TrEMBL record, chains A, B:
Domain Enoyl reductase (ER) as annotated: residue spans: 19-333
Oxidoreductase found in the keyword field: yes
Name the UniProt record assigns to this protein: NADP-dependent oxidoreductase
EC top class, as a word: oxidoreductase
Amino acid sequence: MTPATTRQVVLVARPEDVPRPEHFEIRQARVPDLAEGQLLVRNDYLSVDPAMRGWVSPVANYAEPVAIGQVLRSFAVGEVLASRHPDHQPGDVVMGMFGWTEHAVVDATTVWRTLTETDLPRSLSLGVLGLNGLTAWAGVHRVLRPRPGSTVVVSTAAGAVGSVVGQLAADLGARTVGIAGGPTKATRCVQEFGYDVGLDYRAPDFPDQLAEATPEGVDHYFDNTSGPVTDAVMARLAPHSSVLVCGTAAITSWDPWPTGPRTERIILTRRARIEGFLAFDHLDALPEAVTDLADKIRTGQLAHREHVLHGLDQAPGAIAMLYDGSNDGKLVIQLR
Amino acid sequence: MTPATTRQVVLVARPEDVPRPEHFEIRQARVPDLAEGQLLVRNDYLSVDPAMRGWVSPVANYAEPVAIGQVLRSFAVGEVLASRHPDHQPGDVVMGMFGWTEHAVVDATTVWRTLTETDLPRSLSLGVLGLNGLTAWAGVHRVLRPRPGSTVVVSTAAGAVGSVVGQLAADLGARTVGIAGGPTKATRCVQEFGYDVGLDYRAPDFPDQLAEATPEGVDHYFDNTSGPVTDAVMARLAPHSSVLVCGTAAITSWDPWPTGPRTERIILTRRARIEGFLAFDHLDALPEAVTDLADKIRTGQLAHREHVLHGLDQAPGAIAMLYDGSNDGKLVIQLR
């Protein structure tokens, strides 16, 4: 059952901005023997997340960069084929940081959780029931905490995180305004993800549309983009508003460091609070978040969307899709 | 005892950036009769505060702008000459929003407090025992809350607010780094206000000096300036750091709106919290702050410095002194 070799995606060049196919190579590697405390996992799905850009970036970040020659760090979900750790048995379905590889020999510490929602597709553990869901859930319930009637604005609102943010904020009684790229995604914000308003930031009069959609200002902003979208939202912040900075998807390069309108005067006069957010700081919320989100999926209260690529050969080009907007839901790579 | 007329400083033109003498006129005005609930105050000292720039600014701000033809809004301290309010008696010394006028007829609601620290100079109620002291006290104790051993950086560190921030943070066991304009003020940060390090932001190698002074990064930043000083400090933020935005003294004009390095990536990767601060939101802390700060003054634990101008004729040029750095301590205008 244990294969002798496996196929892996290895980092061969450090990208200066968005990782593209030329930064990776697919290699055949030997599957090592299990040491004490290790598992052999056969990955079913690999995750494609914006955070991976940071993991291969030369710019200082919150995680050690992946070294040249290493398998790309990533979330994955799959089945335990062999285990030398008492908490994990062959046949368990586990989700964790197993990397872009068909088979992974990993320490048990890389496991985030063993799936219990056996009635739901495994791939969801990489998205709405994984890092994306946790990000949205903790961002809404622990940081922004919108009150009923407040106005919540979300950038990349039709994306894997944003689509959940909007629905959770609406559940709390907030008025939600989703911002996405293009009319299709803007419409999807309203029709599929329940936003009160969906705005296309590529529209020439986007700032005016935003002003019209937020007549009393913006109480909470869940920011996945930085850039001009964020500048437009910042200008509309209401007194005592809060901003969660979760991603900077609109900035393709930080060298040279980009400039933008100074925010200090807005922060001061609105007494706004801006906060950096990393889901890894909220791992303790994962069980509660997964339980809550899975229940909402079962009862049809939580819409979500997946974009599935097929086979490891699709992986090297996948991260760039997150930045040109060509993915159409949470991006995963199905291996079997 | 009640004069028939009084001299006042009136706004006659709206400044686009820093208010200067040409925006004001000194006029003689009739002292009106007291209505029910009003007091006649003879001002002893007028305050000169950076906030006053906002009060006359055409840019949206947290307070209604002073209208053309009105007496300039300001803090002042003086003696009650006549009262039609039961809480105030002739002879009381009161501090409040009485404006740049020799005599003021005001509603009792404009009184911030009746002075009880009769052993200390009245003028202190406009600075270290007034808005400046409250700003520093609430900023340190309610917002930044530095832990022992953490690194606290303060801009305009030798100023009326910054000098108190540094001393209160040091009292809590923090390492304090003060940033001021010119070698004299940088030295004063250390010798007079007890900072561990004093830096002159005009030094050509200021960013290197800042890096050397904050080897483990910046845990808390009390920002009074915005601009290049703030950009240098932001680049040194430590994980889970916090920034209090209290003023933007380095920006002389917001039209056109100035640009600077984007902060979203720093906020995100450091999971920093940036918060706008207005002392007016913390008026409930005034009694506790004044008691604490007055005690520290009496026991010699809290250094403070005043710069006194003499006579109402000095007032129109006083606000600009805050922006060219020519004041040398909390700026007040003594009227008698």
